[in-house]
Amino acid sequence: MAEDRLACGECHRINGPDSQTCEQCGSSRLTTDWAGYVVITHPESSEVAAEMNVDDPGGYALKVR
Ligand SMILES: [Zn+2]
Questions:
Q1: Distance (Å) from CA 32 to ligand 1 centroid
Q2: Total number of domains in the chain
Q3: 40: helix, coil or strand?
């Protein structure tokens, strides 16, 4: 299945396929070359969120190339 959503190379946030810049950090380093979609609902109590330096709930890519 093709993945056309874009992951941010800076903060790993998943953005819509037509995004030009990251909705979270404003970076233009968006790529479809990512893997491992995770939804972080409670960043303050999530080890994954701590590892990824995520402060806001939302969808993130585990790996961005
Ligand atoms: Zn970002």
A1: 13
A2: 1
A3: strand
Domain span holding position 42: 6-64
Residue identified by tokens 């790993």 is 12
Q: What is the pTM of this model?
A: 0.87
Ligand 1 centroid to residue 28 C-alpha, Å: 8
Ligand 1 centroid from CA 13, angstroms:
5
- CB-facing half-sphere around the CA of 16: CA atoms within 13 A: 4
Tokens of 18: 């037509």
Rounded distance from Cα 21 to ligand 1 centre (Å):
8
pLDDT digits (tens, 9 = 90+) for 17-51: 999 999 999 999 999 999 999 999 999 999 989 99
How far apart are the CA of 1 and the centre of ligand 1, in A? 24
Q: Residue 17: inside a domain, yes or no?
A: yes
Residue 1 lies in a domain: no
